[in-house]
Design goal:
Blueprint: H1 7-22, E1 27-33, H2 34-38, E2 47-53, E3 69-71, E4 85-90, E5 93-101, H3 102-113, E6 119-120, E7 129-130, H4 133-140, E8 142-145, H5 155-179, H6 186-208, H7 218-221, H8 227-231, H9 238-263
Parallel strand pairs: 2-5
Antiparallel strand pairs: 1-2, 1-8, 3-4, 4-5, 6-7
Helix pairs in contact: 5-6, 5-9, 6-9
Amino acid sequence: MRPDVDDSDNEAFAAEAADRLAALPGVLAVTLGGSRAAGTARPDSDWDFAVYYRGGFDPASLRALGWPGEIFPIGGWGGGVFNGGAWLRADDRRVDVHYRDLDDVEHQLAEAQAGRFGIERLLFYLAGIPTYIVIAELALHRVLRGHLTRPDYPAALRETASRRWLGDALATLDYARTAHAARGHLADTAGAVAVAACQAAHAVLASRGEWVINEKTLIDRAGLRAIDGILADLGPDPVRLTAVVEQAEALIADIGAAASCGSRD
């Protein structure tokens, strides 16, 4: 965004983009997400749109927008719930378009309401993404065109997600202790602690019934930033690395105990 662009210009762009995206074949709804929807955007923040379709969507139709950039096929981002998108430019604005299959979104909503979810790998994410991320988008993103369900956080999901994420975090640290710390593997141990911190943060936020869209502020929101101090003075010494794992485990166990109580409130 240019420094001289005001809110009215941004609203006009959002409206124009939504109209053009909604006109693409198969698209039933368009949302705006990210910092633009949350009201925390910086001048250089990108624009995160999602197109919701049913019965199929041809990403090539995005070429009709006239915005240059890279368009990925359905499933081009590894498959799963995060099933692809496009990185485009509209004049000097960076625009991301995500594809959302309504049949899959509705399936994941039913699963989340029953307390069931999966965890999928996605590039750039330490802990992976829970399949209920597409439900979080419904709850938090701004609907620009069409009609979408606006779900509350399911009570069953609060219980199962907080328990599973916390168990994963403690298991990650337990493995790191014997497989890496005991062998003096600094990088491996540090990586495991970082992953465990993200997993534990998911547990905390699930226990509160707070949706998660990405990992950018995950550790801060969960009150786990003290993990930085634990990792601040590492060296390839098995005794020191084992102590780091145990400190991380104690921090996560304390946070996890509080989270466990919160998920039953």
